[in-house]
Structure formats: structure tokens, C-alpha cells
Amino acid sequence: MAIGLFLLAGIWWVFEVIPIGVTSIMIGVTQAAFFIRPAQEAFAAFADSSVLFILGSLMLGLAFTKSGLTNRIAFKMLTVVGQNPKKILLGTFVITAGLTHFMAHTAVAATMFPVLVIILKMYQDDVTEPSKFGQALFIGMAYTAGAGSLATMLGAARGPVAVSFFGEFTGNEVTFLEYSYAMAPFGWAMVFIIWLLMAFVIFKPEKNEIEGLKEKAAETYSKLGPLTAKEYFVMFLALSVITVLALQNFIPALAELNRAVPILIATILMFLTGLFTVEDLEKEVPWNIVLLFAGAMSMGIALWETGAAEWMAIKWLAMFDGAPWIVFILAIGFLVIVLTNFIMNVAAIAITLPVALVIAGYLGLNPHMILWVSLSAAGLPFLLLIGAAPNAIAYQSRQFTTMKFFMTGIPFTLIYLAVLVLFTVVIWPIMGINPLLN
């Protein structure tokens, strides 16, 4: 029954049968009505700490807009990258990916979203009218937020969780630097591939140049004047949150602190200082997106607790027991990237990695290779909005439908598998990460 609900929810999300947030409510109701899980458990995920972290990230992005920092960042970037839409896309993608090295990709997407709205406004007057440039801008931001977050353990929770699972099952510890050494090249390779395809193939911008953009951006930036007290305050809060989350990887005393706590404290301070009002909470927060992730959490936990997800993972990977090692590697990558589109990437890792490590032992595969393959797939949910918070945040732009996002993700998923083969066979072995045990 959990698998049936899983398929039903996926179809409703892709085709937008009803608003995506309402589909999430349906997930909780169906679990309770058909006794898949008790109502108390089915709806508990709607207030899960991960959902609250997404809410806090959205509020942090809103703070950048309300304080004026968004305008400052947007116009400064435009004065640097110039008037060519393709270069503008490259600039936004590099900044997005770079920021995810130090802060959660959800917070990065929430921060970048209003910046991209301003950039799109400079490109076209009607920001709600879909354009190829707008689709490339927002879908590309979502994709590169995921790709960039692969580079360090700070970009998403999946990294520390996967390393912890790996240590428990193999007895091998993976350091912060070892992690980045293996994953940063893969993440940045995907960033530039995403840019090339977005800018030159799939969503080639309608204009070759936005005349007068650089001069207008420079003029507007100069009129902003020096940083205001509000801007300094928001910068201080953002840096404080990033610092606390980063130090969790190095200071044991902070390790048990839930990651939602620092960002929610920052949100409370914004209300206490008057930066936010109750009207902002009611009108500016995209509750449809918050509900989307609440339902996705509930769905993922249902698949986990009923054993449905583990059953799918075992059945799928067992089909490739005895197959050539490269086929098994592709099977892992495909399974994780499908699962992570429907459930939390942390859950996808937790479900797949133990099964894959056991089977890999019989095939003589390097367990580290299994770890890197699983992580690479978990960070690139190209198909569904629920796959990652940046996907859903990008959806607020109204530049694309859920079906458009899904169809765009199909070729990118296939390209990911091709890049995975390249890294597994060529690049990682050159770096000293061999697929097979000696």
C-alpha cells in the first residue's frame, strides 16, 4: 500500500492534478484512512525539523530581500558578468554552486531566488511570462545547487549521514578533506555541464545581449549607497547560522544540535527586531512549497517504516548480483537517483548504501567507490520538485510547470549516468580511487 501511495503521489505531483501542497495533505490523509500508518505518525512529518529548516531557509531568503541585500548582490553581479545572457547564467550558476560549499543548498536557493527574479526583470518586464532564459535561470539554479552541494559535507545533510553509515558498515573513516577530494571534481563537472546544456542546447536564451544592462546595473548599484544597518544585521545572522552549521562537523558539543535550531533562532530574531511582521508570515512565505516537503517527508518515512523502500532496493540490486562491476555501479546510481526524487536524499542513502555495500563485497568492488556513486546520485534529483528543496523553490518563479521540470530532468539524468561512467572508469582511478579492490 505504501508503494501504491508512492506511485500515486508521484503521478499527481508531475501532472499537478491538484496543487502540489494539497497532494502532500492527501499523502497524510491516505496513510491514516487506509491504516498504512497511524494518523499521529503520518502527520508528524508535517512538523519535522527538516521541514522547519526549509521554512527557516525561506525566511532567511526573504530577509535578504527585505533588507535590500538582494538588490545589492544582483546589480553587483550584473556589473561583473556583463550583458550576455549566457554569461549571466554562468555567473549565477557558479555563485550558487560556490555558496553551497559553505551553507545548506536549501538556504542558498532561498537566498538566490530573489536575486534571480531581479535578473529576470532586467531581461523581460513580465517575470511571470515563461521564457527560455527564465527556465534556464531557475531550473539551472536548482540543479547547480545540488551539484555544488556535493563538494563538501556542509552543503547538505546527506554527506555526514552517508559517511556515518559507511563508517559503521566498513569500519573506515572518511575525513572532510577526503570527501571533498573525491566529490568536488564530480560536482563542478556537473555544474559546467548543466550550464553548457542550459545555455546552448535546451534553453538557449532568446536574446544574444541585453543592451544597456551593464550600465544600468552599475548606475542602480551606485544609487544604493553604503550598506544599511538592516543589511549588516541580516549578514550577521546569515554568517552566524552558517558558522554554527559548519562547526557541527568539527566540534562534538555542537554535533547533536538539530540544524533547524540556528536558522529558526535567526528567524525569531528577525521578528523581535521588527524586520519581519505577521503579514510577511502570511503573505510572503510560500506555504505550498512548505507543505510539499512536509508531504514528501511523510511519504519517505512511510516507505522506510513499512519496509517498502528496503524491499525495492534489495529486489533491484539483487538483479545485478554477478553482473559486470560497471553495470552494478550504474544500477546503484540509477536506483539512488530515482529514490531521491521521491523521498529524502538522506533516506535514499540510508536505504541503498547498506544493501549496495554487501553486494559489492561479493563483486570485489572498492567500498569507497560505492560511497561516492551513492552520494553523487543523491545530490542530483533532476526529475521531481520533491527531490530537493531548491527544485521547489525554483518552482515559485512560475517559469515552468512540474511536467516541464520532469521532462527537462530526463536527459540530465541520462547525462549524469554517462558522467558517472566517465568518473568511475577514468577520472577517479587517475585520482587514486580504484573501482576494484586489489
Task: Characterise the protein shown here.
There is one protein chain. The protein is mostly helical. It contains 22 helices and no strands.
H/E element string?
Answer: HHHHHHHHHHHHHHHHHHHHHH
Structural class: mainly alpha
- How large is the count of helical segments? 22
Q: What percent of the residues sit in helical stretches (DSSP H or I)? A: over 70%
Cα radius of gyration in angstroms: 21 Å
- Spans of at least 5 consecutive residues with low confidence: none
Distance between the termini: 44 Å
Mean model confidence by pLDDT: 87
Beta-strand proportion: under 5%
Number of strands: 0
Keywords for this structure?
single chain, 438 residues, mainly alpha
Task: Give the helix/strand layout.
Blueprint: H1 2-15, H2 20-33, H3 39-44, H4 49-67, H5 69-81, H6 85-99, H7 105-123, H8 132-148, H9 158-170, H10 176-202, H11 213-223, H12 229-247, H13 252-255, H14 260-272, H15 278-283, H16 287-305, H17 308-318, H18 325-342, H19 345-363, H20 367-378, H21 389-395, H22 402-430
Helix pairs in contact: 1-2, 2-16, 4-7, 4-12, 4-14, 4-16, 5-7, 5-11, 6-7, 6-8, 6-10, 7-8, 7-21, 8-10, 8-21, 9-19, 9-20, 10-22, 12-14, 17-18, 17-19, 18-19, 18-20, 18-22, 19-20
